[in-house]
Structure prediction request, 352 residues.
Amino acid sequence: MTLQSIRYAKGNLEVLDQLLLPAQCKYLQVKTVEDGWKVINKMQVRGAPAIAIVGCLSLAVQINEEKFESKKALRQEIEGRLNYLVSSRPTAVNMKLAADDLIQFANILCDDESLTIETMKQRFITRIEDMLDRDIADNKAIGMYGEKEIISQYPKENQFRILTHCNTGSLATAGYGTALGVIRTLHSSQKLEHVYCTETRPYNQGARLTAYELVHDKIPATLIVDSMVATLMKQRRISAVVVGADRVASNGDTANKIGTYQIAVLAKHHNVPFYIAAPFTSIDMNIVSGDYIKIEERPDREMTHVGDHRIAAQGIACWNPAFDVTPADLIAGIITEKGVFRPAELATLEYH
Ligand code: MRU
Prediction:
């Protein structure tokens, strides 16, 4: 069984505190939207799909406990709280898209005169609960398309060596993972020779989380520090780089964890195909290029400390953008649950 970052049963939501991993495996209870906002903002839960699912489920558990005077009052609470959740972390598009979709759904339920307040509430909660199964199904499809794509690049080979960055696995999603889902699929069909994961400075999602998932799932893996990527590509014949995404612009430029861009540059230099694996909903058709993606800047402490231990010189200034944008021309393909798209194809696709 793979790791579970989100435990949910109607009225009860728990998230694995990812800041404590790998030393401690502790679940936190999320009872309200305020709790949801905090666990996301503090990065106790992180990864674009998991952020959206936990945010929306926090709303589901809160309204499940509450009584509303009217459907209109319920609708208003839903809109206000979803907009608040969107403010928890700005770069990933997933929470914003989920909020827009749910606000629209709440409007439809509100206008349907055949529904009581209670039915409206329960239908709304079910819509949120459906996100869990849908995310896992999408991730499995991403895995399948990603495997096919990588195999198609090397018709004479049947063992592949993949490099990934940050954490895109069960911990970053409802389960299975996106880029890590592609790796998982290759592993299940015995086509994965080896996976390399970067440490992912400054917050070490690779060393703390991806490495933990890979060891847990017995996938053959090696950890490298971020500055070893060029040497790795030169010496160990990497078949492909597969990473996740927080937001893909309509021209294919992709925001993902800081450090992704430099890996893509190195992949180009070493002739290694570089892929993004993400749900189709990560494509933000409202943004024409990566220049318009808001990049979150995180506290200095994430760079200067490891846990409670200071590793940087006192008094030094820090700059800590949490994401960077990889230009579309460095990307070989965007692997989604609907298939693999070349960056230039995105603008011609029908929106969701
Ligand atoms: O800051 P984080 O840990 O939330 O950043 C996570 C990433 O950049 C992931 O690659 C991305 O969200 C995709 S997770 C399936």
About this structure: The radius of gyration is 20 Å.
